[in-house]
Design goal:
Blueprint lengths: L1 H38 L3 E4 L10 E5 L6 E13 L5 E12 L23 E3 L4 E13 L10 E7 L18 E3 L3 E11 L2 E12 L5 H7 L4 E4 L2
Antiparallel strand pairs: 1-3, 2-3, 3-6, 4-5, 4-9, 6-7, 7-8, 9-10, 10-11
Length: about 230
């Protein structure tokens, strides 16, 4: 009996040593990654106080007389839910689904942060920053353009503008899509140099893009979903 107990004790000791050694190897190999995951930044797209849509109704007047331009912005809140500052945070537009299809697809690149003129920012823990996803524009039509009541309507993606054409609001702009009634789905990736990337979809429906007040209401009824 004494020999059996000794053998059992020796076996337990060997198993314990093996487990401790295995855990030590895991810590050595993945300890920094685990610590980064536990304490590092975590970026999320989150609802705003009054729903997901953060709409700014901003009627503008163009340089031409009697040519009003009505713009409704759709902005998202990106919050750092982690314990460290997210460095060089970006939101990338990776795809768009539109009801009419996209004849000229906007470029897939960084969206513009709403409050700073850059595509990358640092986001401190528990801080939320706004990013421009898109805006719906209703403006006076030019000669030869397909119109409704002498107006055209379009959806312009909130991408960083690199050229004079990018800064236009009309069919000549590479970021512009003619607006149609139906559902729009924006595919986004949120990332930082020290945080894992996450994919989201942001979806909204337009009932009548040529009605400014209806569009403002539509952009306050937006759904967001984390894909990965």
């Amino acid at each position: 009996m004494h020999v059996i107990l000794a053998t059992d004790a020796s076996t337990v000791a060997d198993v314990t040593t093996a487990v401790v050694t295995f855990l030590a190897v895991l810590v050595a190999l993945f300890g920094r990654d685990i610590e980064k995951w536990r304490k590092g930044p975590i970026l999320k797209i989150v609802p705003t106080v009054n729903g997901f849509g953060d709409v700014v109704s901003d009627p503008r007047i163009t340089e031409k007389p009697n040519a009003p331009e009505f713009i409704s912005w759709l902005r998202a809140k990106v919050v750092n839910d982690g314990r460290e500052t997210a460095e060089d945070a970006v939101v990338l537009l990776t795809g768009i689904e539109a009801p009419q299809g996209i004849l000229r697809r906007p470029p897939m690149r960084e969206l513009r942060w709403a409050d700073v003129p850059t595509d990358k920012i640092n986001i401190q823990p528990e801080v939320a920053r706004s990013v421009d996803i898109a805006h719906v524009v209703r403006k006076a039509a030019l000669p030869g353009q397909v119109t409704q009541g002498n107006y055209i309507a379009g959806v312009k993606s909130g991408l960083i503008e690199h050229s004079d054409d990018d800064r236009q609001t009309g069919p000549q702009c590479p970021l512009w899509m003619d607006a149609h009634a139906g559902r729009y789905i924006y595919h986004l990736t949120v990332a930082a140099s020290n945080a894992n990337a996450k994919k989201y979809t942001v979806a909204f429906s337009l009932r009548n893009p040529h009605s400014f007040q209806t569009t403002v209401s539509d952009l306050q009824d937006v759904t967001v979903a984390e894909v990965s």
